[in-house]
Structures are given as C-alpha cells and as structure tokens.
Amino acid sequence: MTALLLGASSASARAEETAPAAPPAAAPAAEEPAGVGDIVVTARKKQESSNSIGMSINALTGDTLAKQGILNTADLVKAVPGFNYTRSTYGTPVYTLRGVGFNETTLAAAPPVSVYVDEVPLPYSVMAQGAALDVQRVEVLKGPQGTLFGQNSTGGAINYIAAKPTKTLQAGADASFGRFDSFTGSAFLSGPITDTLRGRIAIRRESSGPWQQSATRPGDRTGGTDRTQGRILLDWDANDKLTFELNANGWIDRSTPQAGQYVGVISTRAPANVAGAATTAGNAQSADWDPNTRFYTHDNFYQIALRTNYDFTDDLKLTSITAYQKLHRDTLTDADGLAVNNFTAGNKGYIKSFSQELRLAGKYGDHVNWMVGGNYQNDATYDTFSPQASSSSFPFKAATAMGHNQVNTYSAFANVDWQVLPKVTLTGGVRYSYQFRDYVGCLFDSGAGDLAAVVASASTRLSGSTTTIAPGSCVTISSTTYKPSYYQDSLNQGNVSWKAGVNWEVAPHKLLYATISKGYKNGVFITTGATFAAQLAPATQESVLAYEAGFKLSLLDRKVQLNGAAFYYDYRNKQIRGRVIDAVLGGLNRLINIPKSRIAGAELQLVTEPVKGLTINAGATYIGSKILGDFSNFTPTGTAMLMSGEAFPLTPKWQLTGDIGYDRPISQTFNGFIGASATYQSATNSALGAQSLFAVNAYTLVDLRAGVHTADDKWRFSAFVHNLNNAYYWTNVSYAGPDVAARFAGMPRTYGITAGWRFQ
Q1: Is 565 exposed, middle or buried (0-12, 13-18, 19+ CB in 10 A)?
Q2: pTM
Q3: CB–CB of 266/693 below 8 Å?
Q4: What SS3 class is residue 458?
C-alpha cells in the first residue's frame, strides 16, 4: 500500500524544475528559495505559486510529464488525484474530475471538464488529442469554472501552457522505442527571427504495430497507432505595449480502432450465433471483430488562435483571444467483440468552432485585483452514426442517424481578489451565459427498405392511417403525428455561475481556504438511431453547487508540502445516457437528466524531498457519489429499476497515485536516476443499474523508469516499464449495440527505451 501512496500530486517536480522556461517567472517570494512543490502558475491571470492559491489546483511541469511518460490528457490519471479517463464506445475520450463527467459519444456533447491550450478552449473532448504537445506545464483546476476565462464547466478545467518561443536559439528532440514496435518521436526548434519576432515549431509522431489479436483467427491483429501532431508559434512585440501571439496547430489520426472484448448478452432476443459465442474477456490482448472488414480511424484537426495583449499601464491590461478550429471525423468501429457481423458502427462528421474573448484586467491600489470580460462562441456540428446489424436482433441490416447542431453562446464575466487584511483575501466571481442551440436530426433507412417497412408498420398502428415509407427516407416517428419526419428543436437557456471564497495565511506558507461556487454545463441533443422522436429530446443544462474547504501547509523548513481539501457537490439535472423500451426494437438510447444527486469527498496530497535528489509525491481522493430522490430508469438489459442511492457510473470511490524518484551524480559528467509510480482505482460500474455484467473491477498499475543524464541535462537516456504487474484491467463496458456487452481493456505490460537531447 505504501507504493500506492507515493503519488504524483499537485506539485510533482523538484524545486529547480518549478520556474517556467519562458517567460521567466519570479519565485513565490523575493529573495527566498522555492519550497518543495512550488510551481509558478497563472490560473488566476497572474504569476503565483500553486501553493499560495485558495483553490484545488494540480500543476505539473513539462519535464515531469515527460519523465512519467504522460504524453496526452488521458495519461494525467497517473499524476492527478480525482481525475479519470474513460474510452467511450466509439473512441471519444471522456474526462472526469471528482466524479463529474459525461460518458457520451455524440460530437456535439460539450464536456463538463474543459480542455484549453493557453486559455484557448478546445470545446469538445475529441479535439484535445494534441493538447499535450511541447508544453511548459499543465494546470488542472477542480470544481466549477468559468469566472476567469473560457467556457462554463461543472467539473473543472485543464489548461496546457505551451512552451513559448525563446529569445535565444534552442532545440531539442526525444525518441522512444518499445514493445509492439512502438515509436514516439518529437522535436522542437525555437528562437529569434528578428529583434521583435520569435518563433517555435514542434512536431510529434506516434506509431505502433497492432497489440490485440483475434481469439478465433490466429495472426489477425488490430489496435495499431498512427498519429502526427504539430504546432507553430509566433510571438511579435509590436512595441513596448502591444504584443501578438499566434498559434497554428493540428493533428492527424490514422490509427486502427481498439476492438471490444465480448462479455455477454444483454438481450434475450440475441441470435443463436451471438448468444452462444465464447467470451474474449480475461486477456488484454485477446479480442475479436468481424472478419474481412477493415476498421479504421481517419480523423483530422486544425486550429488557428491569435492572442493580443495591450498594456495601457503596468496595472491595466487588455487581452483578446480569437480562435477558429475544425475537426473532421471518419471512423468504422467494431464495438461488440464478436467474430460475427452482429453490430458495427461508422461515425462521420465535423465540428467548426469560432470563439472570441475580450477581457480587461487591472489593480486598484495594492490590495485589489480585478477583471471583466466577455466571450462569444459559434459552433456548427454535423454528426452521423451508421450502425450495421447483420446478425443482430434489430429488424434491419443498416441505417444512418444524423444530427446537426448550430450553437451560439454569449457570456460576460467578472472576478475580483481583495486583500481585506494583511493575511486575509476575499475572492469573488460571476458569469452570465446564454446559449441558443438549434437541432435537426433523423434516422434514415439504408436504402434496403427493411427498416422503412418496420417503422411504416408501427406508424400505421400508432396513427390509425396507412403509412408508406420509401427506402432511404427518414423514418423517425413524430411524437405528435406518429408519422415519419425530421426532428427539429431548439434549446435556449441562460444561467448565472459564480464563486466566492476566503483565503487566510495563518502563518508564512500555511494557507487555509474555503470556497462556494456554482457552475453550469449547457444542454445537449443526442445523435442516435432514433425510431421515435422522443429519443432525440434534449438533456437540459446541469448545475453543480460546490462547497470546498482546504489547507496548503509547507512544513519542516519547506521540505514537506501537505495539501488537503474536503468538498460537497449539490448536483442538479445531471446529464446521462439512459434508455427507453420499445416492444419491437427493445432498449433504445436517449439522454436524460437525473434531477437530484450529490458528491461528497476529500483529497490529500503530499510532496516531500527529505534528502537532495529524493522526491516522494503522494495523492489520494475519495469520491462518494449518490443519486437522490425517486429516480427510475432502465438498465441496459431492459429492466426497470428505482436507482436512488446508486453511485454514478464510472466513478470509483478511491483513487490513489504515487511517484518516487531518486537522482544523484554518478560521475563528474553524468547523473543516474531511478523512479517508480503507481496508480490505483477502486471498483465501479459503467451503467445505471449496477449490474454485474457492466462491472469495472478495481486495478493497480505500476511503472518503473531508470537511466542517466548529463549534469546539464542536455542528454538523457532511460529505460521504462509500464504496467509492470501486467494487470488485466478495463475502463468501460459498452452496451451501444442491441445484443451484447463488451469491455475495453487497458494496455498490457509495455517496455522500451528513450533518449533526449537539448541545445541552448
């Protein structure tokens, strides 16, 4: 258990790693050496130590991310207590903080945990694949956000700070080779172009061979990686008051989708060749998928963002952030883990997003910092979901569901920090937001006419008049006329989110704080195979009223940092995917709201450097989630249940993270280092109803690393092992298809070597 508690928490870097590379930042206190765990952050629009802020924030330097093998947002589970990643059925990432998450594959489903790069929002989780490229640090803010920058969120915000163009020539490269023929290579070049213009270019390439093998066809494999990411930054100092920062970035993903592992049937009407299939669960590498079918991912993303800063005076600054981004998705996935053509799905679509933020920040005397701003965002999403159900109990072979969203969001926000006494600071913020969302959706017959015939029969029965539906037409039955028609609706909602808090520095480097905040997540329409319009009705906006009290204590001459917090979330109208039951088609997906629920929890984080070169970092989070009131819905197997008292799906009660590292000279030229990290998650369940078929067992993962680096850190060589104990674990159990449940397993043991070089 000790190993589990040696975790990477809110400050997982040595003191000498805490200052960002560019721009240079002062230490938390003038003429005073940084304490263990001090990392300079800008979460509140000013440079300050993460341990002097009265909020729950985890900060990790770029060096720490690299050393622990954290290459993307999903990997933050290794280092951020309370953060959880789940792969959804069709590959869309689901990020959860302190139990606040949204397991939904629809492209237009805005997440409750927002991801940013330099405060530029990536408004949909599927866009965040390249966010961790060439970063200076990452800041994870827990709890409702929105009064400082960006968009509303109920769970929190993850802000990556990209490594900036430098005033001197710098370059670097890293390469990693490992099991399954994996290769990760990255490089950057940074420096001055003119006296006032600086640039930086970074690129990363990830590839690997397939790591899953067919349980029924020896030699047939899937699950390979093929990703490329790139970024170009230009910083221009137009004069001593006006600066521009241009960020152009993008990525391409041509990976082979991971296959599911068949667990069991969820429908008594499943065909014999499905119900009698042997389970493939039990070995991470064993899975199955349709033979003679090429499953693929063809996803692309690019973003252009311009940040403009104008300093009227030293105490009055104007910031404008303009961004445009576009994502294109085209995937074909086998999610059922079967070697028969039971249920596959194609997902195609795009997201176009434009955002504009303008804010003014200033100071009033020496004791008040304030900020006001506004934000506009325009999103257009087009999403298609094309199931193929050849051997399924569904009475059709293929269909295509379509959903189109046009979204306009207007927001205004303000925030103030007021030092009312020498050791006491009050904080407050408010945000007003209004969103106009228009939606059009429908399910289309494939052209074969089989689905059209089934729906026409149901329409005739319900409407009392004969219905004829041409092959290839829209088949979604209206809730009023009981005839097929496009579903059109609008969801226009406003809200006021806010935050208030008090920080009390009871002694130097010892902080007590308390906050109360309220945040909202906007409503959403689903893209699904809706034979009935009721399936497409939206989930309205959700809200979280969060209470938190905590401490940040620097102890033993600042060699120990101990941070802790207790929190309670009053959760209203939680958005979740539920079910409705049809006599002909069985269980049908739809979005619903859980009227009342709550989360009660606590977290503790420890960072210490007892002797020079030895760092120990530990983190633990307890999350007690519960559905309140009289809430009923259907389980994935179609059973109606009263679900009051249940924990949230995909919300483990306990999460522990740990890291220990030792770095010391072994010669005049080289230092040697060794390290180990561990993560633990307790058991949870992936679906409402907590049925055993959808259980996600507890698991522990252990990583090791060892190597050498030059004293000036210009060269670094290391070896690593991930999942040393070769644990078989899974993070989700899918029930997207009509007949079966399938697990998505984590990677087995992997190992490899890395090399890094820096020039400056």
Answers
A1: buried
A2: 0.91
A3: yes
A4: helix
